[in-house]
Amino acid sequence: MAHVTRPDGCRLYVELHGDPSSPPMLLLEGMGGDIPGWRRNIPTLARACFVVAYDHRGNGKSDDPPGPATMRTFVDDGCAVLDAVDVDRAHLYGQSFGGMVALELALTHPERVRTLILAATHAGPAHAVPVADPTVPKGEPWRSLYAPGFPDEHPGHVANDLAVARAGTQHETGERRQWEAMQGFDAYERLGGLHMPTLIVHGTEDRLVAPANAERLAAAIPGAELRWLAGAGHLYHSEQPSIADGAVIDFIRRHP
């Protein structure tokens, strides 16, 4: 499958990985990201799940249509992708902005969700805990994506991440539209209505979304499990792919 076309004409780029008879997992990427951002994770996840990965509108190889978009727009896109691949219920795995899409999808369409995996995210800016010290060297904003010291200790790893990001399609308005959708998003008071198995994953050194937000989610969502990735930053799944993937697969196998 290459694209799913939405009613407004927006084409969403979709990739399928793994055995279609395995439990389905919908990957929901972060703001401005694209499928290659999951390249260190998809091969492992696809050994346990039928992975459905797609680029949000305005991200990667998906279209960047004009006009505003709300969080509901991104939720409807996700449901349309599931429909296109004949998946009724999926494990939702959302990172950062994708975690907010996953939250809203789970709240408004709980019948589509097997489990909810929320990574490096929060329930909306109105109740988000800010990062205490987000300062990074001038001219190197990408350092905020990683744990302090990681880029210097693993320069080849980070260089590869940056090269892959630069090679991706860059939409001028896509990231801004996602940021605007996030500003209008607030799920905090509704978190108690989530009753599917939920895993929260967060790096202890995240400098974009403060780790305290993971604790808030875990406290508000009934029965939620919290898994810390010690020493990892916002791109925990790039820094510690084997540990992150192992935690996600273990959770899914306990909640098929």
What does this structure look like?
The protein has 256 residues and is of the alpha/beta class. It has one domain (3-254): Rossmann fold (3-Layer(aba) Sandwich), CATH 3.40.50. Helices cover 33% and strands 17% of the residues. It has an eight-stranded mixed beta sheet with strand order 1-2-4-3-5-6-7-8, sandwiched between helices. A hairpin with a 5-residue loop joins strand 1 and strand 2 (11-17).
Q: Give the CATH class.
A: Alpha Beta
CATH fold name: Rossmann fold
Overall shape: it is globular
Largest sheet, in brief, is: 8 strands, mixed
* Fourth-level CATH superfamily: Alpha/Beta hydrolase fold, catalytic domain
Order of helices and strands: EEEHEHEHEHHHEHEHH
Q: Please, how many domains?
A: 1
Q: Termini distance?
A: 25 Å
The count of strands amounts to: 8
Short structural description:
This protein has 256 residues and is α/β, with parallel strands linked by helices. The protein is built from nine helices and eight strands.
What is this structure's SSE topology?
Layout lengths: L2 E3 L5 E7 L6 E5 L13 H4 L4 E5 L16 H14 L5 E6 L1 H12 L4 E7 L30 H4 L1 H13 L6 H10 L14 E6 L8 H9 L4 E5 L6 H4 L1 H14 L2
Parallel strand pairs: 3-4, 3-5, 5-6, 6-7, 7-8
Antiparallel strand pairs: 1-2, 2-4
Helix pairs in contact: 2-3
Could you list some keywords that capture this structure?
Rossmann fold, 256 residues, eight-stranded mixed sheet, 9 helices, alpha/beta, 8 strands
